[in-house]
Amino acid sequence: MVTLLKEIQSRYSSLSEKERSLADYLLASPIEASQSNIKDIAAKTDISVATITRFCKKVSCRNFVELKIKLAREAYQDGKDNVDSQLKLQYEDILHDIQGLSGQRALEEAMQLIKTAKNIYIYGLGSSGLAAQELNYRLSRMGFASEAVTDPHLMIIRSALFQEGDLLLAFSRSGQTRDLLHSVMEAKNNGAKVVSFTAYGDTPLTKLSEAVLWTIHPIRTGYISTGLDLSVLYLIDRISLFFLQDKKRQETYQKTVTAISSEAYIENNR
To answer: Which residues form the HTH rpiR-type domain (predicted)?
Structure first.
């Protein structure tokens, strides 16, 4: 079921800067918004009443009143459910939405680029940096020459040294993070191929990418902010399972399991 909050999320990349300010407010504070009048929201978001009215029509509401009714209904439903139920429903929605979001062709293109790369660098900042580290951990254990880079200064240094045959895997929910984009452009100028993991289309990052794997922008409802990590983890698992079908990769992975579980390693790390 496509809720109002999901529709706002899906249309986010096509909104103007002012409309995004309104979208951010509605996603972060749906209960407060459902109890406010149009002038109050205009003042809080520093946009005009006319902009709010246009926004309502963009997200399939005839007017502001209908938008408020939908917000109130969704906020009320969230309030009836306990935390465990809300999380379960959100996780189910994410797994349902992510399946098939990245087409088979895009996945195959990404796998081929990873398979044939001389060196793989994985960029991400903030929570995207955690995703970069996790993917690096998986690829390294399968024998790929990979490195996670989560510092913006180190990113630009690495990008300056890219060569033909190197691959950049870039994690960015928005696809518009300035520091990351600067480094991606530098790497691209030096011959890198780019695969991006992002939630929005038609962004500077997707335009620089040979392949795009889609994640999901989380719907923020008060105390719950989830979605990106789970959808990214799903893609990381798909990549891992694909390469573990290769016998040599599987043997290499098993060597790392044996090394980490060895008595000597455990003793030295107590």
So the answer is: 2-78
d(CA 96, CA 260): 35
In contact, 4 and 75? CB cutoff 8 Å: no
146-149/167-171 β-pairing = unpaired
| Residue 110: per-residue pLDDT | 96
Question: pLDDT of 146-162, one tens digit each?
Answer: 999 999 999 999 999 99
**Parallel, antiparallel or unpaired: strands 120-124 and 211-214:** unpaired
- Residue pair 121/167 in contact (Cβ under 8 Å)? The answer is yes
Average pLDDT, the chain: 87
Q: How far is CA 216 from CA 98, 102, 213, 251, in A?
A: 7, 11, 10, 33
Report d(CA 86, CA 220) in Å as an integer: 12
In tens, the pLDDT along 41-76 reads: 999 999 999 999 999 999 999 999 999 999 888 876
Token pair in block for residue 185: 């452009």
Instruction: Give the predicted TM-score (pTM) of the model.
Output: 0.72
Domains of the chain in sequence order: 4-84 (1.10.10.10), 103-263 (3.40.50.10490)
User: Which residues fall within 8 angstroms of residue 58, CB to CB, at 6 or more apart?
Assistant: 11, 15, 19
pLDDT, tens digit, 9 for 90 and up, residues 76-87: 665 555 566 666
Q: Cα–Cα distance between 213 and 198 in angstroms, integer?
A: 7
Structure tokens at 125: 């900042």
